[in-house]
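Reading a protein record of the kind used here takes only a little practice. The record below shows the convention in full.

——
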Amino acid sequence: MNINLRQIGTIHSPFCQLENMPVQPKGARDMLATIEIKEEFVQGLKDLDGFNFIYLIYYFHKVKEHKLQVLPFNEKTGQKRGVFSTRTPMHPNSLGLSVVELIKVQDNIVTIKGVDILDGTPLVDIKPYIENFDKVDLVPTSGWMKASLEEVSHKKSDDRFIEKT
């Protein structure tokens, strides 16, 4: 089976370097960014402005290496974790997922808030956050991840996922 993904747009954010970026949207709550949608996909934006949160699915274009075990940013014990139990960009397919606030849609430009994504990141898809579909009614567990909301909100990236030259 062949899987083909198409870039539908480009995310433009204030983060031009991987180092010292917030590692999750919680740490970038007030950061504004725009998405420039390719002309061939603009019709797909119809009715999106009726939602206040959206999922962004994007390609980690700066990842050069994939690992099955990593040391995540919020791991307090120094123990490596299986990549599928983390949000690291080192996953085999280098796809990222963020929930962001939708500010406005104008022509081919989507303005968003709460973005922790590197400038120039290729966007693969947008999906609306729909509370009746997506809200978890049970108390979720976070596995090994024990960092508090305060810790997550202030965590910045370091060089652990940046290619060494």
In short: DSSP finds two helices and eight strands in the chain.
